[in-house]
Amino acid sequence: MLHELRESMNSVDVLITFVPTEQSGQQPAMQAGYLPRPAPEQATLFTVFTWAGLALMGPLRLAALARAARRATAPLTPA
Asked: In the predicted model, what is the mean pLDDT of residues 67-75?
């Protein structure tokens, strides 16, 4: 599940960057299926969101790995 979330982060980052900072003329291009050229502040915001997503995903992945390791080494209990 974490892998799929990380793979979709690029789309999420684009969405949360373009929705609040939409420039005139970008909406028709997006509706036509094109990603318009970003304004400088949009490029900066996208970079911030991308790095923030990576910063959040790192600890989540480590926690999932630690949990899996604990489960793998836990003694089996008789049923």
From this structure: 87
